[in-house]
Amino acid sequence: MCGIVGVVANYPINKLLYNALNGVQHRGQQAAGMATMDGNLMYLRKGIGLISQVIGQSDLNYLVGNAGIGHVRYPTAGSADDPEQAHPFYVNSPFGIMLAHNGNLTNTEQLRNEVLNRNHRHVRTRSDSEVLTNAFAHELQKLTADSELSNDKIFKAIYQLNNRLAGGYAVVSLIADYGLIGFRDPFAIRPLVLGKKESLDGFTSYMLASESCTLNINGFQLIRDIEPGEAVIITLDGKIFSKSCHDNPSLNICIFEYAYLARSDSIMEQIPIQLARQAMGKYLAKTILTKFPDLEIDVVIPVPDITRAVAIATAEGLGKPYQEGFVKNHLIGNDKASHDSEQFQTSVINRLSPISLEFKNKNVLLVDTSIVRGNTSREIIKIARNAGAKRVYLASAAPKICYSSVYGVDMPVYTQLIGHAKSDEEVAVEIGADAVIYQELADFKQCLHEINPKLVNFEASCFDGNYISGDINEEFLQSLANGVNH
Asked: 2-251 belongs to which CATH class?
């Protein structure tokens, strides 16, 4: 998963863009980058680390201009340690283009071959985003070989590009001396929202972002979500244009956004994330009462921080006390380097300290966002038992994760998922829980549909194995398990 931002204003936007990227930092902490534009001049800074580690004051002084894009990255394709794969990407022909991308293409190898051998453009990395950048540039170049750039030609280039791409993607791009472009895949798997801010001089500034939370904290008003297959052009003089760039768009947003990825103060497809998680908790309580009517629960405790809203609603639905049972050290990051080592166990223990009073001699229902590999769940359950819990049950706010995610969520291949080919009882034994309860996928979809009845279909492949792009087969999934980049 990644976070993207694009801004057009009538004043220098370097600090605004920096702050906006901080607002989506939760979507990626591995790499960051900013690109700005001052007329025909373009400026770029990117590297490994948080935005605060990559961009210093001298970089901000360098990043001049009234338009810009930015990116925070959690790698889903290519090498995590290669600074060249940080976004944005730049090509100098035609015009000069900067591009940043959230998502994952599933036909990268085919597209790479086309770009290299038919479009005669060079790519320097294994990143699908660099391939996408060059494919976009090629489509623009074809349409403007003997004429000037126009909105219609940009929309046509994106239409042609959408016919070449497969997978999930949300994109922000700068075209030198022209403006900011944003577009979303025809299924709208990855999120992208539009916001505006009116200034006293009458100029309307616009921001495109992965989530509305960063609009709010920077004084922008949420206008709407970008539609499936839609492209938006914001020119440097503050004019905005939009057009559908696909013949058969269909809204199928990634349902995992609501369970885990999005921040609680965001609104996505007209659904407040906080409200969605409260609804998830109500349905989770119903599942527990139906499937485990005799489960003895003394207290409901969330695994902080995202799951609080779910856990509170679950406790209310069960008629059980809710308590905070863990103190989380926010100054220690998640250690993803080794999931089976003593170092990983120590990392979990250092991040989560139990409040023993809430565990001692109690039957505890822990509520977490999801169970992926099971390693973190196993360590948390050990912490609860060591704090004196008699029994430890684990409820997952998300349904059982059984299949590989291929559209831009950082998740292990299916062979590394604890839920793959294991029953709930086997998962419970594996992680040391007295019982494991998963959210029902049908309930998950229903609770979102009840908030926004227009949401009917979802991208939920990690739960149900249904890959809506239609190009995923067992050979592709096996190649992921073998470490092949697509």
From this structure: alpha beta
Which DSSP symbol is given to 196? E
- Tell me whether the CATH fold assigned to 2-251 matches the one assigned to 275-328+350-451: no
Q: Where are the domains of the chain?
A: 2-251, 275-328+350-451
pLDDT by position in tens, the chain (length 486): 899 999 999 999 999 999 999 999 999 999 999 999 999 999 999 999 999 999 999 999 999 999 999 999 986 544 567 788 899 999 999 999 999 999 999 999 999 999 999 999 999 888 899 999 999 999 999 999 989 999 999 999 999 999 999 999 999 999 999 999 999 999 999 999 999 999 999 999 999 999 999 999 999 999 999 999 999 999 999 999 999 999 999 999 999 999 999 999 999 999 999 999 999 999 999 999 999 999 999 999 999 888 999 999 999 999 999 999 999 887 665 544 444 455 555 566 678 999 999 999 999 999 999 999 999 999 999 999 999 999 999 999 999 999 999 998 878 888 899 999 999 999 999 999 999 999 999 999 999 999 999 999 999 999 999 999 988 888 888 776 555 444
2 as an active site residue: the answer is yes
CATH class, domain 275-328+350-451, is alpha beta
pTM: 0.93
Annotated catalytic residue within 2, 213, 245, 462: 2
